[in-house]
Amino acid sequence: SADYPGYLALELKDKLGEQLLSCFAAGTCGDINHIDVSRTEQRRGHSGSAEIGQLLAKTVLAATLSARRQADVGLAVRRSVVELPLQQYSEAEVAAARAAMPKIGTRELSFLEQVEVYKIVALQSRGETLPAEVQAFRLSSDVAVVGLPGEVFVELGMAIKQQSPFPVTLVIELSQDTPGYLPTRKAFAEGSYETVNSRITPGGGERLVEEALKLLNELAK
Questions:
Q1: What is the pLDDT of residues 105-123, one digit of tens each?
Q2: How far apart are CA 118 and CA 140, in angstroms?
Q3: Using 50, 70 and 90 to split pLDDT, how confident is the model at 41?
Q4: CA 163 – CA 171 distance, rounded (Å)
Q5: By the 8 A CB rule, do 194 and 31 touch?
């Protein structure tokens, strides 16, 4: 289904007219969730999607009251590809992971053990690095958009926003590629499902931040 962006679009059309065309993209949200995962009972399905979409629509509608037209529109684009080092495992670790593959889906391995086993085997079909495309679009002197691949941790997106030379910087994840989770160094040290599942080595996420800021500063000149 269209999920909550669909309900967001319907609500905006209802309030602003059927001719409205809305554009939705996910921000960096690799380590946040809209539900409390520690609870077994959650509001799911269309009722939950409708609630989220309608709440977002209220925010958008409120913002239109103070929105102003961008008079100095000047489109420009920069892109680059960053080679992020992938995690490497010894022959013994790979052999152990392959031997454990039949146990995935059983109770012989914990959930995180299953995640790690699958990741180690999956990594063997890749090389030593992950080519990650970073994109930056200047829409005006005030507004820029950054596109990053993968499920990016929110702190990385916030770092780009805070250091960007543009007053408004929209950071979009899952742009061009889906290489899995891109955590922060801090998250790797703490450990979590996302870091166990991640294919890159610690520091890769921060490298994308550096590259995005470099491109934004080029566009701001």
A1: 999 999 999 999 999 999 9
A2: 44
A3: low
A4: 12
A5: yes
DSSP, collapsed to helix, strand or coil, labels residue 133 as strand
Contact 80, 211 (CB under 8 A): yes
Residue 81 forms beta bridges with which residues?
133
Is-above-0.85 flag for pTM? Answer: yes
CA nearest neighbour of 7 among 63, 52, 42, 44: 52
Residue carrying structure tokens 């039949």: 102
* CA-based R_g, the chain, Å: 20
The structure tokens listed for 112 are 């995180």
pLDDT digits (tens, 9 = 90+) for 194-209: 999 999 999 999 999 9
Q: What is the pLDDT of residues 165-181, one digit of tens each?
A: 999 999 999 999 999 99
Residue with tokens 């602003």: 16
Report helix, strand or coil for 138. Answer: strand
- DSSP letter (8 states) at residue 26: -
Which residues have CB under 8 Å from 120's CB, separation 6+? Answer: 89, 93, 94, 97
DSSP H/E element including 112:
helix 111-123
Looking at residue 103, the DSSP 8-state letter turns out to be G
Q: Could you please report the per-residue DSSP string of 36-100? A: -TT-S----HHHHHHHHHHHHHHHHHHHHTT----SS---EEEEEEEEEEBP---HHHHHHHHHH
Give the Cα separation of 57 and 49 in Å (integer): 12
